[in-house]
Amino acid sequence: MKTFSAKPQEVERKWYVIDAADKVLGRVAVEAANILRGKNKTIFTPHVDCGDFVIIVNADKVVLTGNKENAKIYTRFSGYVGGKQVDTPRKIRARRPELLLELAVKGMVPHTRLGRQQMTKLKVYAGASHPHEAQQPTAITL
């Protein structure tokens, strides 16, 4: 018996919606990353983008455990001298609440071209509504 390898044109994509209200950031991110990669499918192939679309709503209501809201640090560097920028989740949540979930999921997908392609299927919204009702997404409970 030969090992099955999925072909990109054979992959059937579905849409899923995750409600992140009062859920722990990492738990939501793990579930989203697994669906984006396609690890929940029997045809999972590591080098093929066989994942589905994921919509995360209520990203502004996601919870961080412990004192991470103030103590965790997100660092960026512009490339210029003195261009290091440090943010806490509290600052990021005030400016752009979707970014917390996007960064968490981004760290859980491969850091390659394939991972960047998989991240394009992630849609994160701060509120409870999203513009993807026409795709009839399936709700996932955590």
Write the layout of secondary structure elements.
Layout: E1 15-19, H1 25-37, E2 53-57, H2 68-71, E3 74-77, E4 84-87, H3 89-95, H4 98-106, H5 113-119, E5 122-124, E6 138-140
Parallel strand pairs: 1-2, 1-6, 2-5
Antiparallel strand pairs: 3-4
Helix pairs in contact: 1-4
Features:
142 residues; 4-stranded parallel beta sheet; 2 domains; two-stranded antiparallel sheet; 5 helices
Task: Describe this structure as you would to a colleague.
Helix 1 (25-37) packs across helix 4. This protein has five helices and six strands. By secondary structure, the chain is α/β, with parallel strands linked by helices. The termini are far apart. The longest helix is centred in the N-terminal third of the chain and has 13 residues, at 25-37. The model has no long low-confidence stretch (mean pLDDT 96). The strands form two sheets. A four-stranded parallel beta sheet has the order 5-2-1-6, with helices on one face. A two-stranded antiparallel ribbon has the order 3-4.
